[in-house]
Write a sequence for this structure.
């Protein structure tokens, strides 16, 4: 709860947590979904058991959006210290404060509207999140109202530039990002994945140095979809951007479980790949005060 309102959340605590310092992954569900639905579909709790990390699931209230979508398309919900970004960051800080969370290993991921909001949080709170995962989402600033939101979702435009989305101006820092998108997505146009990466790459975040040439690999899930993974590395050789294009996937969490909505088990396991990517990134940070 803060001046922007109140949001509930659920927290999964793995059985291996006995008070030691552990990572935290914050998961933002898509429209019409709930924390329980999203947890079931992404099987992130099973990965938390395997790797021993906490998982927080903020819940969008129907009084804030009739379809329970995060309001990524409203200007009031695109800035640091305001609206839903401040509520999600507040939930994150509350969990960090209540449990022994390694403050340098706090991560965020989301699907669809949750993915778009995760991208906004990555841009506005780079001091809080060490890396971000976006599945079937959109770039920060892709829309300013409901009408432009539908246009961006259907057409994939316009390409955005980094904006003044943080208190005191836009930070030159960006967080590492892993992006998943199906090339048959008819709900959020796949072009949005390219615009999202362009937004994050506009400022490298690692002393302003450009990323090294992209390495591309292709693969195939047995009895499932083919995929292409493009990886950008920084000057130190770390993967700071991964773009996964799943060939044949619609608007669904790749490799997800059937009990959850908007999932498709025939794709590569987005949850496992995000956890792998997150484990590569940590940073010494202080919790934000706004």
């Amino acid at each position: 709860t803060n001046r922007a309102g109140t949001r509930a959340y659920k927290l999964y605590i793995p059985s291996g947590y006995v008070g030691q310092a552990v990572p935290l992954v914050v998961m933002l569900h898509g429209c019409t979904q709930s924390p329980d639905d999203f947890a079931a579909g992404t099987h992130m709790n099973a990965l938390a058991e395997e790797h021993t990390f906490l998982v927080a699931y903020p819940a969008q209230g129907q009084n804030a959006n009739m379809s329970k979508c995060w309001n990524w398309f409203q200007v009031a919900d695109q800035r640091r210290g305001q609206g839903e970004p401040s509520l999600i960051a507040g939930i994150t800080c509350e969990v960090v404060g209540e449990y022994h969370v390694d403050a340098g290993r706090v991560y965020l991921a989301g699907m669809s509207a949750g993915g778009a909001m995760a991208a906004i949080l990555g841009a506005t709170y780079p001091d809080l999140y060490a890396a971000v995962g976006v599945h079937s989402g959109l770039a920060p600033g892709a829309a300013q109202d409901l009408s432009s939101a539908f246009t961006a979702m259907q057409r994939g435009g316009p390409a955005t530039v980094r904006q003044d989305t943080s208190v005191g101006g836009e930070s030159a820092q960006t967080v590492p990002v892993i992006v998943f998108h199906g090339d048959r997505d008819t709900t959020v146009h796949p072009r949005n994945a390219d615009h999202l990466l362009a937004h994050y790459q506009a400022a490298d975040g690692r002393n302003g140095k450009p990323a090294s040439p992209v390495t591309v690999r292709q693969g195939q899930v047995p009895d499932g979809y083919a995929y292409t993974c493009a990886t950008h590395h920084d000057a130190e050789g770390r993967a700071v951007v991964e773009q996964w294009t799943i060939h044949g996937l619609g608007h669904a969490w790749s490799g997800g479980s059937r009990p959850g909505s908007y999932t498709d088990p025939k794709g590569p396991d987005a949850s496992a790949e995000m956890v792998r990517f997150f484990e590569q990134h940590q940073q010494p940070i202080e919790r934000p005060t706004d």
About this structure: The chain has seven helices and eleven strands. The radius of gyration is 17 Å.
